[in-house]
Amino acid sequence: MSIFSPQLNTRFDELLKRYPVPRSAMVPMLLYAQDELGYLTPEAIREIAARLDESELAVHEVIGYYSMLRTKPAGRFHVQVCTNISCLLRGGEEIFEHCKQRLGVNNHGVTPDGLFSLEEVECIGACSWAPAVQVNYDFHENLTVAKLDQVLDKYRTGGVQ
Amino acid sequence: MADTEKLVTFTVNDRKLAAPAGTLLIEACKTANVEVPSFCYYPNLSLQAACRMCLVEIEKMPKLQTACTVLVAEGMVVQTESEPVRKARKSALEFILTNHPLDCPVCDAGGECELQDMTFRYGAAESRFVEIKQHRDEQQWSPVVYFDRPRCILCYRCVRVCGEGMDVWALGVGNRGVSSVIIPNKQDHLECEECGMCIDICPVGALTSGAYRYKTRPWEMKHVANVCTFCGDGCKTTLGIRNDEIVRGDNRDKSGINGDFLCIKGRYGFDFTQHKDRLRQPLVRVDGVLKPVSWAFALQTVARRFQETQAAGRPIGVLGSTRTVNEENYQLQKFARRVLQTNHIDHHRTADFPALYDALAGKHSPVPLAASEDLKTAKAVFLIGSDPTNEHPLLAWNLRWGYRLNKTRLYLLNSQPIKLRRQAFRAAIVPAGSEGQAIRFLNGGGAVKATLSQTAGPDDKRWPQTPASRPEATQETLGDFRERLQKESDVIIVFGAELRGDDIHELVKFGSSLPGTTRYIALADNANSHGAADMGLYPDLLPGYTPVADVAARQRFESLWGGAIPSAPGMDAGDILGTAGKGELGALYVVGSNPFRHHPVDPAALRTTFVVVQDLFLTETAKQADVVLPALSAYEKQGTLTNTCGEVQLQKGGALFEGAKTDLEILHTLAGLLGHKWAAPDADEIFTEIRGNVKGYNVSLVQVLAGSSALSMSVNGPVPHQHALTQIQPNRDSLFTAGSLGRYSTALNAILEKRLRAEKV
Question: Does the domain made of A77-156 have the CATH classification 2.40.50.180?
């Protein structure tokens, strides 16, 4: 019995056809699994390893390598604040500090209601519109502290997603 | 990899050198005695180029190059000691040392640490790193493997040897960049074969041994090469001995037939020598209870009772050992035949050597036995029965080696999908017990039910191989298996106890029909099983498989041993124990064997049988003895051992144990007490006698004394014998069990307990 949805399983089947070596499909499989489950559970890791004819250790090696893959639950809205050079010069650190205070959590923390999690990330490729924050897959750019509050409020009240 | 036909010439440090095309620069330098330091490079493992220690300057190349990944090329000009190289090495070391704790004074590796040696040699003793080093507590990954993360220099040797060498893949790399870390396969612990190869191969003290850690320093031990006393493969284990006690086992000089390899038993199993239950004093049964007595009293009791039994005309049975050295086995059968005047002598048989030699008679000269190392370079190997991964770890390592580095095609015929199927070119799974039938089928007779699976071979593009089993690609017939195999030449045939008697004749018939020279390895289970057979621990066969009924041969031994020996074949082990069970055996002399464990004899029936047991522990058999004589173990004596392939190696001993005696000394003393004037028990003298008189044992003395192995070529002529095939009873040991002896190893037991706990959870 698969722990993934039928849709995701179909997607995995398609993925596996695309590569000459099954293990090449590991990273996209992990990402999609994470999107569906919120994080990579031990069961998900076991199932993906079995599908790829790899050891669980090999899957753990890949997860450990990529910081965007996680084995612990994140909040429903995963707030990723960029503090790399462009964002830093345009106030990224203040944005990050403000997030910490507003959400009451530290880096990698999850709010008690499970709604938000916070992570300081490397460049997200939005330098032209720095400072920028990524929430799940959505980008919020040219931010100020006030604009950030609005963004977070929207998520909190369910206005977005 | 190297093409020996074509040599390329190049220059290193202004010296003209030549090496076969395809040679790695680092190897070519090593051959020419030019030192190129490295951590991550390890011969015969995949290349890593992680440590940057082997950087050298190559003319016309823009930057320094890693000598471990560059192949020698015609006209290449290399500098290994130039200023840029010197600087690069120093920087590499400084970099490696940034977070290294430099706790050498307490580290196990101190004194034999590659990082320590290189730092002394290449500098970087002063660090510019002023930040606080990151400490992590040590972790216990298994009863025998500990990990100290800060010491790790991330050379990945452990990861590669575990995966590529052992095909276990239990170690991996977690995280990335500066926070990279070696991780075990079960989050916080290892689930593996516990071979300890990762510890041996670690250039620093990051992986340490549970048995040895914090116990001593390398220079406080003497290092004595011994042959491992457990399975029949005959690996060299170098025992670290301090104050006459064994502190560790490893293969530090890699000079044995096992090269890099050692399994858990060779590495940790030695601890039985210091088990609290080890016998230190002879015991004699007084009023039904075994009581400690003096050696003199015990030996006199044995001699007197043997004499009384002989005088009463009651049969005496002798059961020898498959762990004692050749010299002891040879003297034991001499003792039985000459002193006790009996051919009722046998040993615990685990392979049918007489049948193999009989089948090979006249087929090829010398007798085509394969040495263990030959498996590394064989073109094709046909493996029937057994599970070498568990029962013959070294042979399994060599088979994997051949597959990995020399594209050996492994043909596997087994009743179980054993782990080596992952290296198999063709695998045939047949019902248990029909292996002999399958061989007949290969010879063109009969049909056999077989499920065949074609597994991916060495040409598989998915290298490095995946850890899990390969999918079965197609269903084939045993006929195709035969067709493929018949195209192979110079095959090495390796077979377990599944084949015996006539089946072996069929096997040799098949082997002889193959092109080239077919060579054989019969798999026997204990350290000197092959030697015991060669030395004549058989009721009907004298040393060198000479029939006791053969008048000329018998007379030759009689003149050598100074007197008559009985001419009629005696009882085998089964009959000896059966006679004992009926209360009809006068005396039973058991040397280093525990027959009652699997064949209990009613104590009531033994009331009129005088039982002497010579062993390390109070085994099931010893508990029923009238006299128990404490014997020294293989690690406390000298002699030679013959491994399952027939390779003769020297046992150097080195450890001391108070209270016990060698089996040899006991035998000689008893012979003296029974009126036979034997020379002093000198293993060297007896080995000379063996070399001169046992067929096939005229091996090179220099080779044996120098600590390498010499392949015996036992017989080349028919071995007439009629043996009950049921007398062959394989141990079926796992990696963590070893007959009666393994039970006394704390390390082996710790692993078994851990596994049982894990199963319960």
Answer: no
